[in-house]
């Protein structure tokens, strides 16, 4: 059964059609990769799914419910966890406190929020950094902090928008391992990533968009060989 279904999603900004009649679905436990050249409409599609933007047309069905047009806060409480492309931690709070902000989306209890946040940080191998301020973290750990904040909301679906951008190859490997670990725990993940070897290693299936439109969908090996995909990237 699919956890997320996007049906005929279109998002216009004035005269610009950023996402154009996009349809796709993600099964429970699956990792779906969304790729495409810069400006293709990937983040806009995510923002429509997560309720940041109301779609111009189309539907978002999440866990069997039509959630089109619902706000990010309600969607978060229903199990949609997301990271943002631009990382913005609260600088004056500790790593643990930052992650607790995520946990407070689904509990009012401070102890529960703290326990959940600490568990998530342990799982991500950041347990020893929980009392640091975000400014003291490496870029890779700051990305993990973003993932931790999203995980602390206890999501059914995790949306990751270019969490590996700016990382060194060994750090990319670490984040790939973290995402694989989440998948092995049954998490459903919708991932935007520009680093091709990461998306190829992680995705069960990949959707490629260009100028807001789907140009290819399939298993990684098939997508990597597709003529339209190669052309779209060469033209970048
Ligand atoms: P990607 O994430 O694939 O790089 P985006 O979804 O960020 O692409 O952007 C798709 C297109 O929509 C781009 O042309 C971008 O300039 C435009 N766009 C994105 N957000 C807005 C916005 N809030 N207002 C106007 N145009 C936007
Ligand atoms: Mg983007």
From TrEMBL:
GO MF assignments: ATP binding; ATP hydrolysis activity; L-isoleucine transmembrane transporter activity; L-phenylalanine transmembrane transporter activity; L-valine transmembrane transporter activity
Top-level taxon: Bacteria
Transmembrane segments: none
Keyword Membrane (UniProt): no
Entry keyword set: ATP-binding, Nucleotide-binding, Transport
Residues in ABC transporter domain copies: 4-236
Cross-referenced PROSITE patterns: ABC_TRANSPORTER_2
Gene Ontology CC: plasma membrane
Pfam families reported for this sequence: ABC_tran, BCA_ABC_TP_C
Protein name per UniProt: High-affinity branched-chain amino acid transport ATP-binding protein BraF
Provenance organism: Pseudodesulfovibrio piezophilus (strain DSM 21447 / JCM 15486 / C1TLV30)
